[in-house]
């Protein structure tokens, strides 16, 4: 008996011949009890499957490799002068180490608690972290396969006597002793515990109890009043046997560790904030809660110190506390004094300041956010020379001040750059930048950085063993204040290259002559603004929404929130010019629509001087001024196409006129007229639409029930089988109503030179996809090159496709006769890509949120499709085209689609066969902003925001992986050996795989996730794969 399948399978849809299956004694394939995929597997060749799986392993591999930007919510700062390493702890329990550019390490505590203190052990490659759950953790940098890894090797929590209150062991101060094997822990109860490291063994016989200290306090000191908690612990710089214990009430005691007795008392009476022991050991400086600091002489045999000096730097009115004080000597002249806080409470209590006083120079450095901590780097091989740099960690950035150059300028940071100086609104990645364009952008950026110090980056710890990047890559970020920032994204460090500002084209409330960096002459306190974090935008309409850069021609187009599209070209000289606006009326006179959103930006009528770099020469203003939702540039044809929620247009930037304007509004799209900044949204309408959707789904369910009993039984059986195979979120694809809001919103625009009218003549074309599942194709007629400046470009409607399920179209791609994506504009002219095959028939790939569908050209008949939503209920959110090179051989690779879904999963879909190749979980489905911010590269990598200030970099390519490879060793000049210590008994070694899980720590409810996955993470190898090729 011969039988055929009742449903057309994938091979039938692709036009391939399928031999019928012959079963003896069976009248229906379903009698086999197999679902469709298993029917196919029964007749597949095992050799073909294993061969394909091997190729997949050579092409694809998922890794989260490095985090770019500034750590979210930093809470602690540490520095090792010997290792030249900086450590930052965060509120989510992350610990990050940085040395020279490219030297980076990341770790994550199992406990979901904030890191409150970080301390490096002297002369070792170990550091200790204190969390706000009162646990201490030991970390080490251990060499593994030639690179160092950050490992947690021990944890410890102080335990008090039975029945003792928690305050007895609540750690408030930590001192890493210069011997390298002792930790002194001051507590809230006033006790000091001494712990031997790395084994975290408490030396009970050497502990300094509060009773011992209280008994040694003279009677005249306030009747031995309560000393409160231990605020500070300091070691005597010239006698390591002595430590200074500073208590919250103000009393300071110098304690001898050998004799276990108090040597001297410092009877301060103000609430203590910070203590500093001068380098010669002769004086102690204390800062207090009333904005004062005192200088105490501690040299000599007198058991009680005398106050030499007490000063309130910004008196006479009440001042805020000085939270930290440091004094460092200079070879010639007076010392440097650094004070954090102390501002007059009434007038400047909201300022975040560090005062630097040296000789007659007094500056109050005014930072942009709350100060976390600071330290000073010193010159010399033993780091005891002249102060060279002040390093300040504030809540939103890291600022480094050059103390050896006149004016104390800021040193530009090669990493930890605050990406969110102004909130990021979009991003765009460009691979393989030509050297000429790279140098011109770099030159323009250098001219913007003349106010920075010329000194090199002062932190040089570790060796960067990562190979040189094989190509130059740019990441462009658009920001809320109308700026576009260019970043060198070639390697581990995301380095700032150039900043473009578009605000100068428009009239805004800001005054360009404002200079916030300098205080008024004679002002007191002598403020000086430092830092670049500035989250406030002069006008939200300036926000950049779309960016497109042509790396071959140097043309750039950016589009904004108020419907403005700027076309810019790279100029090495400053130029003065007027930018005239061309209005594109997307409503085309349609009646019944009234725009309720923001107004358009007013363009400056007078000439504007633009600095060297990208300079605007053309401006298109959409009307209504809605957010630009799609933007594409074709520099070879000198055309820009743009789309909003109302329609799309085509602009000729050589002749500076509109070629095409098309309205895509549906009569029911009144919601599209309200704009993103309008608050007039109709709740009644939203409820009405929700009820309509419910009603439609119920009607469709009723229709399904009008079947005979046999069909119902079969359907029930198939549904049960499908439910076993598919995810819980599986659902049927139902056609969306044309009455849904924003169906006219343009999601994607695409230029292609393909066969649109017949199969023998290829012509330039424009394709547009909308939120309602519509695709519009226009045939473009370009005049000859010699007449390009005079004759107009024309556009004629050619095709229109309406997807049956009406899902939003998120991508359009034309494949040539070989099934390869068409090359970028000018790519073939620069001999960087082969010419597309124009002999065979082309195909059109339409990517909607729910499926990938291939059509033949020019007939536009359905060829094949891949349903995504029907499989696992996910929807396409981001899509890109990438080339995946093989790790086995350099001359083999495949093109594929990189896809990110609303579930946070990454897929690779093959081209031209449109088959699902691999799937990896990447982003939490709850992280909507992270999914929306994702951008793919041409070589299988990607970036997405894990916080407002951090990009996570990932790779889907087995060959192309960019990740830190660093080695840190103890200097041979230090007393310790370079060999790592033996592990303490019972300590667990956990490979730091924070690159793969760091973003999970950003939510406070992720501790369970980390606990469940810790076993898996310890087995992961973070060694780098081979670098990618061009």
UniProtKB/TrEMBL annotation:
Q: Which terms does the UniProt entry file under GO BP?
A: cortical actin cytoskeleton organization; establishment of spindle orientation; exocytosis; Golgi to plasma membrane transport; regulation of establishment or maintenance of cell polarity; regulation of Notch signaling pathway
Record-annotated Lethal giant larvae homologue domain positions: 311-409
Q: Which InterPro entries match?
A: Lethal2_giant (IPR000664), LLGL2 (IPR013577), WD40/YVTN_repeat-like_dom_sf (IPR015943), WD40_repeat_dom_sf (IPR036322), WD40_rpt (IPR001680)
TM ranges are none
According to its record, what are the GO cellular component terms?
A: cortical actin cytoskeleton; plasma membrane
| GO terms of molecular function | GTPase activator activity; myosin II binding
* Start and end residues of each stretch annotated as Disordered: 970-990
Keywords from UniProt, A to Z, are: Cell cycle, Cytoplasm, Exocytosis, Phosphoprotein, Repeat, WD repeat
Q: Which family does the record claim for this protein?
A: Belongs to the WD repeat L(2)GL family.
PANTHER family of this UniProt entry? LETHAL 2 GIANT LARVAE PROTEIN (PTHR10241), LLGL SCRIBBLE CELL POLARITY COMPLEX COMPONENT 2 (PTHR10241:SF20)
This protein is called what?
LLGL scribble cell polarity complex component 2
What domain of life is recorded for the organism? Eukaryota
Query: Where is composition skewed (Polar residues) in this entry?
Result: 970-980
Q: Please verify whether the record's keywords include Cell membrane.
A: no
The stretches annotated as WD repeats are 470-488
Compartment(s) where it occurs, according to its Swiss-Prot or TrEMBL record = Cytoplasm
Q: Which organism is it from?
A: Oncorhynchus kisutch
């Amino acid at each position: 008996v011969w039988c055929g399948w009742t449903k057309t399978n994938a091979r039938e849809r692709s036009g391939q011949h399928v031999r019928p299956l012959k079963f003896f004694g069976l009248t229906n394939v379903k009698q086999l009890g197999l679902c469709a995929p298993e029917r196919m597997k029964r007749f597949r060749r095992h050799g073909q499957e294993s061969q394909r799986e091997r190729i997949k392993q050579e092409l694809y591999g998922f890794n989260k490799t490095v985090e770019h930007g500034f750590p979210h919510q930093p809470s602690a700062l540490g520095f090792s002068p010997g290792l030249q390493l900086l450590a930052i702890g965060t509120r989510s329990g992350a610990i990050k180490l940085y040395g020279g550019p490219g030297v980076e390490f990341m770790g994550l505590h199992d406990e979901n608690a904030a890191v409150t203190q970080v301390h490096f052990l002297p002369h070792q490659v170990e550091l200790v972290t204190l969390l706000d759950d009162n646990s201490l953790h030991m970390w080490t940098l251990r060499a593994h396969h030639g690179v160092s890894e950050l490992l947690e090797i021990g944890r410890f929590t102080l335990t008090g006597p039975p029945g003792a209150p928690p305050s007895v062991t609540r750690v408030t101060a930590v001192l890493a002793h210069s011997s390298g094997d002792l930790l002194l822990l001051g507590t809230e109860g006033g006790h000091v515990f001494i712990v031997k490291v790395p084994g975290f063994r408490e030396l009970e016989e050497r502990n300094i109890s509060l009773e011992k200290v209280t008994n040694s306090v003279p009677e005249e000191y306030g009747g031995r009043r309560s000393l409160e908690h231990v605020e500070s612990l300091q070691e005597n710089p010239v006698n390591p046997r002595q430590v200074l214990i500073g208590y919250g009430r103000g009393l300071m005691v110098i304690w001898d560790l050998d004799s276990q007795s108090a040597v001297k008392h410092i009877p301060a009476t103000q609430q203590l904030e910070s203590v500093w022991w001068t380098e010669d050991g002769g004086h102690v400086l204390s800062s207090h809660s009333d904005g004062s600091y005192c200088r105490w002489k501690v040299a000599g045999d007198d058991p009680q110190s005398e106050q030499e000096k007490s000063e309130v730097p910004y008196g006479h009115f009440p001042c805020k506390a000085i939270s930290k004080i440091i004094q460092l000597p200079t070879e010639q002249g007076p010392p440097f004094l650094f004070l954090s806080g102390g501002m007059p409470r009434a007038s400047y209590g909201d300022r975040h300041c560090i005062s630097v006083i040296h000789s007659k120079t007094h500056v109050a450095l005014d930072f942009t956010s709350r100060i976390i901590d600071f330290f000073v780097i010193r010159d010399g091989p033993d780091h005891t020379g002249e102060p060279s740099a002040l390093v300040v960690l504030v809540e939103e950035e890291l600022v480094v001040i050059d103390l050896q150059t006149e004016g104390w300028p800021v040193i530009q940071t090669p990493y930890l750059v605050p990406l969110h100086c102004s909130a990021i609104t979009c991003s765009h990645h460009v691979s393989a930048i030509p050297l000429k364009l790279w140098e011109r952008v770099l030159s323009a950026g250098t001219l913007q950085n003349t106010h920075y110090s010329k000194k090199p980056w002062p932190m040089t710890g570790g060796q960067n063993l990562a190979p040189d990047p094989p190509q130059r890559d740019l990441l462009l970020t658009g920001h809320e204040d109308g700026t576009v920032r260019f970043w060198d994204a070639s390697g581990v460090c995301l380095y700032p290259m150039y900043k473009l500002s578009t605000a100068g084209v428009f009239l805004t409330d800001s005054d360009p002559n404002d200079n916030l960096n300098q205080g008024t002459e004679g002002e007191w306190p002598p403020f000086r603004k430092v830092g670049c974090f500035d989250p406030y935008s002069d006008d939200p309409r300036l926000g950049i929404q779309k960016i497109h850069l042509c790396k071959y021609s140097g043309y750039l187009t950016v589009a904004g929130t108020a419907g403005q599209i700027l076309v810019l070209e790279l100029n090495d000289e400053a130029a003065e010019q007027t930018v005239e606006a061309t209005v594109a009326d997307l409503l085309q006179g349609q009646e019944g629509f009234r725009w309720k959103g923001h107004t358009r930006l007013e363009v400056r009528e007078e000439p504007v001087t633009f600095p060297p770099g990208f300079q605007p020469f053309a401006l298109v203003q959409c009307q209504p001024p809605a957010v630009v939702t799609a933007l594409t540039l074709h520099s070879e044809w000198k055309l820009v196409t743009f789309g909003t929620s109302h329609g799309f247009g085509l602009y000729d930037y050589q002749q500076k006129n509109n070629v095409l304007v098309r309205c895509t509004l549906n009569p029911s799209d009144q919601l599209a007229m309200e704009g993103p900044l309008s608050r007039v949204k109709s709740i009644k309408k939203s409820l009405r639409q929700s009820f309509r959707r419910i009603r439609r789904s119920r009607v469709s369910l009723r229709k399904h029930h009008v079947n005979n009993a046999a069909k119902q039984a079969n359907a029930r059986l198939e549904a049960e089988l499908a439910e076993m195979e598919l995810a819980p979120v599986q659902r049927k694809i139902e056609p969306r109503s044309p009455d849904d809001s924003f169906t006219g919103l343009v999601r994607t625009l695409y230029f292609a030179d393909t066969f649109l009218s017949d199969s023998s003549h290829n012509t330039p074309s424009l394709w547009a996809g909308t939120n309602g599942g519509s695709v519009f194709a226009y045939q473009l007629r370009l005049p000859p090159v010699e007449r390009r400046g005079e004759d107009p470009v024309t556009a004629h409607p050619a095709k229109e496709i309406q997807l049956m399920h009406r899902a939003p179209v998120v991508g359009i791609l034309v494949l040539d006769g070989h099934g390869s994506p068409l090359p970028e504009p000018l790519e073939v002219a620069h001999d960087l890509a082969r010419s597309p095959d124009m002999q065979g028939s082309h195909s059109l790939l339409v990517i909607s949120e729910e499926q990938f569908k291939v059509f033949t050209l020019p007939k536009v008949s359905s060829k094949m499709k891949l349903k995504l939503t029907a499989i696992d209920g996910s929807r396409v959110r981001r899509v890109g085209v990438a080339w995946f090179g093989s790790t086995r051989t350099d001359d083999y690779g495949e093109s594929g689609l990189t896809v990110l879904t609303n579930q946070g999963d990454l897929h690779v879909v093959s081209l031209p066969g449109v088959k699902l190749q691999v799937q990896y979980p990447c982003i939490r489905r709850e992280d909507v902003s992270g999914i929306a911010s994702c951008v793919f590269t041409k070589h299988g990598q990607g970036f997405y925001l894990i916080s407002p200030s951090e990009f996570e970099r990932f790779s889907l390519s087995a060959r192309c992986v960019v990740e830190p490879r660093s080695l840190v060793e103890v200097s041979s000049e230090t007393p310790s050996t370079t060999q790592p210590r033996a592990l303490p008994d019972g300590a667990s070694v956990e490979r730091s795989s924070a690159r793969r899980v760091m973003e999970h720590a950003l939510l406070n409810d992720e501790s369970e996730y980390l606990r469940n996955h810790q076993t898996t993470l310890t087995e992961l190898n973070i060694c780098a794969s081979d670098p990618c090729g061009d």
